[in-house]
Each structure stands twice: as structure tokens, then as C-alpha cells.
Amino acid sequence: MADYAKVVVPGTPISKSTFKMVSKEGRFFMPHDSGGYNDRYANYETTITLMARAQNPGIIFYESLIAILKVFYKSEKRHPDTNNITKSIFDGIEKSGLIINDAQITRLVIEEYYDKVNPRFELELYKESVFNMEFTVLKREEPIIPVSYDPPANVKGKTQKKCGTPSGAVETSSPKPPSTKKVCSVCSRH
Length: 190
Fold this sequence. Notes:
17% helix
């Protein structure tokens, strides 16, 4: 029985959260066979399923697993949130029969890279009964240029401070006097 499997799927990964819709009753569902844009997710999940099975014939994992996911995006500026694509990838892997349940993934490392020519994801699965995962975070001897991120479009202009500026300074807006209005702790509305 195999202790290891690797799945490589070409193309930019698609986030499942992008395609959820809400019905009139307020329930979430995934549209499929609509003949439109929303079919992209179903097609992507099917691609993952077929490639995982073709690349790992006869392998089925029943135990807890260590997963290393390397995502290679085409663009450094525009791509889905890496933490949101894991659900779509593991759903496709589960449907392939390579794993029984995505809850088997008990340890997960996600690494983000850029490859303009060959965007893809590479997933390595290791049996936790056979392999141990250790990792170390080391301070760089020579710092590299940081990758800066902007807040999502729905929260731009709401941030009060920005850390990690090139000079190392912290920028803050002028403090506001305390408000007497009640504010919702979930959506920050008055």
C-alpha cells in the first residue's frame, strides 16, 4: 500500500466561495449544469477528480494525512485568496476516492508561488503513521523585498494603520473620539 501520493493540476485554482449562491429560502447552494459562468467550478472540481485518480491509480488513503499544497499563480496581483482554494481542491480530491474524507488532512502547509507560464497546484499527501512533519521558521540574514497587500475592495479606506511600509514606519490616522452610538460587533454598522 502506498504511503505517499502527489497530484498536479494545471491552471489557476478556483475558489469555491466565489460560486456559492443563496436561494430564496436563504440556503447556500452550488449551481451546476446552468450552461453559464457558474459551471466553471463544477468543471474545475471534475478536472481535479479525474487527474487525481489518473495520477494515483489504486491508491486510497483511510488514515490521517499530512498535506503540502503548493499553489503557483499566474499573476502576483490578481489571484484568489490561497486559504479559500483549499476547500475546492480537497473536495475534488475526496470525490476522486484518493481520500475518504477531507477531515483526514490533519496537518496542512500551504505555499504560494508565481509562474506566469505554468499556473497550477501541486498537492503531496503523506500518511501520518509513516511520516512526521517538522518545520522551522528562520530569520533571514538579508531581508528581501516584502510583498505588499491591499485590503479587500469591501474594506478599503476603513483601515486605521498600515504596517510593513518600506521604511519600517507605522502610519496611523488621527485618533477619533469615542462614539456614543452602538456599533454591531459583526458588521461594524451603527
